[in-house]
């Protein structure tokens, strides 16, 4: 019985990976074994960094809120604690945006909870 090789599927798989490797430097873009490793690593980084991105933005928002709060004589933790006790529900993204772009509104919030 002759040996059966599914070259069509093999070629399709390789084309898919090489398409993902488009724009890479050197042999990473056109040599199958190198491109496969590069694409696998890139996909791992993409998966990891989608989660890390959320952490990084939260940290940035906290820094901005802290800087805005300290201008009005409070620390970040004091401000968040007092917001909770006064039942003011604003997430960190909104607070950070107010602290940067609307200092008057942020000051009004800080004065309300003081």
Give the CATH level 1 class. Mainly Alpha
What's the helix-strand series? HHHHH
* Beta-strand share of residues: under 5%
Secondary-structure arrangement, i.e. CATH architecture = Orthogonal Bundle
Mean pLDDT: 96
- Identify low-pLDDT runs: none
| Count of individual domains | 1
Radius of gyration from the alpha-carbon trace, in angstroms:
26 Å
- Residues in helix, %: over 70%
Would you write up a description of this structure?
The structure is a single chain. This protein has one domain (7-113): Orthogonal Bundle (c-terminal domain of poly(a) binding protein), CATH 1.10.1900.20. The chain is built from 5 helices and no strands. The protein has helices at 7-20, 32-71, 76-85, 92-101, 103-113. The longest helix is centred in the middle third of the chain and has 40 residues, at 32-71. Helices cover 75% and strands 0% of the residues. It is mainly alpha-helical and 114 residues long.
């Amino acid at each position: 019985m002759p040996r059966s090789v599914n070259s069509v599927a093999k070629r399709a798989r390789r084309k898919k990976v090489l398409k993902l490797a488009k724009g890479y430097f050197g042999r990473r873009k056109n040599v199958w074994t190198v491109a496969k490793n590069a694409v696998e690593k890139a996909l791992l980084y993409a998966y990891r960094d989608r989660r890390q991105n959320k952490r990084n933005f939260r940290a940035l928002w906290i820094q901005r809120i802290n800087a805005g709060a300290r201008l009005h004589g409070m620390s970040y933790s004091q401000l968040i604690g007092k917001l909770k006790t006064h039942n003011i529900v604003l997430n960190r993204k909104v607070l950070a945006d107010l602290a940067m772009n609307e200092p008057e509104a942020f000051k009004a919030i800080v004065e309300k909870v003081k």
